[in-house]
Amino acid sequence: MKRPMMEKAIDKFLKQDLENAKTMFEMALLEEPFNVTAKLGIVCIDAMQDGFSEALEVFKLAMFATEEEKEKIYGSLVEGAWEERNIDAEWYMDNEFLAQAYIETGEADVARAELEAAIYLDPRSAENHHLLGKMYEKLGDIERAIDHYEQSLSINPLQGEVSKRILKLVQKKNGKKRDS
């Protein structure tokens, strides 16, 4: 993996350009899925966006840690943040990157089929519905995105970011109807 990408991602994060930093960390993970610094960056950015402003300081301190210490910090952040939401962060992140890779390579139907199969096997999985909603949103299918986000929220109501996504998509959908 190119080190400049990680350096740029870290620099953007430290400057609190969170969206660009997160995108760069995600790109780094597509190239190097076990890059703990990139994983830690994403989790800290998500925590900051959820109002945990101390996550930036945690990230700064982690930059001076060994890889093993970074893994422990990452694990404790993931466990704490995602236990609260009742979502398996490792599973979710792995599958989110897989779905994103399928979308980018034009094989969104493969990702959709895999996620639909996962939902069939476990219809009460907030993670599966959330991921499918995210995938449909990226594909521009607002109706299906809203449907799966709502199902995820009905299973696990402690997902404030999902409520925000639904609201934005409904506004986007209503804006399209008015334009027609």
Give a concise summary.
With 180 residues, this protein is an all-alpha fold. It contains 10 helices and no strands. The protein has 2 domains: 3-85, no CATH class; 89-179, Tetratricopeptide repeat domain (Serine Threonine Protein Phosphatase 5, Tetratricopeptide repeat).
What does this structure look like?
The protein has 180 residues and is mostly helical. The protein has 2 domains: 3-85, no CATH class; 89-179, Serine Threonine Protein Phosphatase 5, Tetratricopeptide repeat (Alpha Horseshoe), CATH 1.25.40.10. Helices cover 81% and strands 0% of the residues. It is built from 10 helices and no strands. The protein has helices at residues 3-14, 18-31, 36-49, 55-62, 67-85, 89-104, 108-121, 126-139, 142-155, 160-179. Helix 6 (89-104) runs parallel beside helix 8. The protein is globular.
Gyration radius over CA: 17 Å
Q: What structural class do helix, strand and pairing data support?
A: mainly alpha
CATH superfamily of the largest domain: Tetratricopeptide repeat domain
Q: What's the CATH class of the largest domain, please?
A: Mainly Alpha
Mean pLDDT across every amino acid position: 77
State the separation between the terminal residues, measured CA to CA.
46 Å
Helix fraction, binned, reads over 70%
Q: Write the CATH fold name of the largest domain.
A: Serine Threonine Protein Phosphatase 5, Tetratricopeptide repeat
> Number of helical runs?
10
